[in-house]
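Entries read sequence, tokenised fold; example below:

***
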Amino acid sequence: VIIGTGSEVGACVEAAAKLTAAGVNTRVVSMPCQELFLAQDESYQKSILPGNVPTLSVEASTVQGWHRFSHAQIALTQFGLSGPGGAVFKHFGFGVDNIEAKGKALVEFYKNAGSVPDLSCRPIFNNVQDDGIG
């Protein structure tokens, strides 16, 4: 599974087509809003993102938060580069070839590891303390 959020979706679709043609069955999920996805019931979420298949998120913004939905991320980890949009996009790894390569590498990693961890199998804690302050 490849998750795209906006301007990356087109490249994700192209990379998924190349992966599928190479024998790696791949589908793309467009997730422009994590909060809206999380507002859906659990069965819907599992039908879209099973959690136990290699999942790569592609977000032309921060990597923060994507660990909940994907096993690996392509996202910005630095700022300060100027240039033509397409060149900057490619430089940061948002091009079709890099998405395809990272998708192959992710599948190969878990094939060698023997299993894929289920991202939905984790505790979620409420960290707000009932201490009378709020």
